[in-house]
Amino acid sequence: MMTIGELASYAGVTVRAIRHYHAKGLLPEPERDHSGYRRYHAAAVVELIRIRTLAAAGVPLARVRELLRADAPDFAAAIAEIDNRLCAEIEERRQHRARIARLAAGESLALPPEVVEFLDHLRALGIDERIIEVERDGWIPLAARTPDRIPDLIARKREQIAHPQLIDFYRTLTQAINEPDNTSTLTTLADKTAAYLTHLAATHGDDYLGGDIDPALASLLDTLATETWPSARHLIALLHDRGWTGWTKIQRAAGD
């Protein structure tokens, strides 16, 4: 026979926990001896360890009572169910951690996974982080307003980013950002952009460039780009001289 303190020590729990299990009906309370102390049998240690193990695994105490009384098949089935729930919770937490990691890397939690993957692809190509931030800020309202279009748009962007011309555009854009007052760099960028747009239009048609983005949304995205990189206004003007208008919703300039 042992005291409640000795039982707690053997089972690795606190006396308070034992009293809580008594109150919940999980561990029977023994009768008091002639001195007024409760004395526990050795079997109580085994029972208490079982309770502690189930509770530590996240099993609700109400369910612990049920499991302690279950036969072997029911106990195994219940444990399998609990394990499946824990696996689901682990996966949910993994996804939470992935979202937090994106946020720490500068991505918004509002961005769908395929957009985040595309931004990471740009990083892997060595694209300047400032350009990626402009891309990211453009995708956020686009994904919020037209989430159903994101898979198609991302597929198109992934196809385009495989073109050496577009990678060259991004690298020249980096140079233009680093040299905001260098008109020569902007002119080179405008020439390369116009050539690339002409190639895309010849390959896929003009509608491939303009798409069906809502004009108001396109205007918002254009404003985001020019506010982040003011030289974009100059580049847009240079592109207009070369037969193209717009930034988000690119089209042939009137008269071309």
Low-confidence stretches: none
Distance between the termini: 99 Å
- Percent helix, as a range, is over 70%
Biggest β-sheet strands, sense, barrel: 2 strands, antiparallel
Rg is 33 Å
- Number of distinct helices: 13
Which range does the strand content fall in? under 5%
Q: Care to count the β-strands?
A: 2
Number of domains: 3
Kindly report the average pLDDT value.
84
The ordered string of helix (H) and strand (E) elements is HHHHHHHHHHHHHEE
Using the alpha-carbon principal axes, give the shape.
rod-shaped
Strand order of the largest sheet: 1-2
- State the secondary-structure class: mainly alpha
Descriptive report:
This protein is mainly alpha-helical and 256 residues long. The chain folds into 3 domains: 1-67, Multidrug-efflux Transporter Regulator, Chain: A, Domain 2 (Orthogonal Bundle), CATH 1.10.1660.10; 70-104; 110-252, no CATH class. 70% of the residues lie in helices and 2% in strands. The chain contains 13 helices and 2 strands. The protein has helices spanning 4-11, 15-23, 43-56, 61-68, 72-104, 113-124, 129-145, 150-161, 164-178, 183-204, 206-210, 215-228, 231-241; strands spanning 244-245, 251-252. A two-stranded antiparallel ribbon has the order 1-2. Strand 1 (244-245) and strand 2 form a beta hairpin. Helix 3 crosses helix 4, helix 9 runs antiparallel to helix 10 (183-204) and helix 10 crosses helix 13 (231-241). The radius of gyration is 33 Å and the shape is rod-shaped. The model has no long low-confidence stretch (mean pLDDT 84).
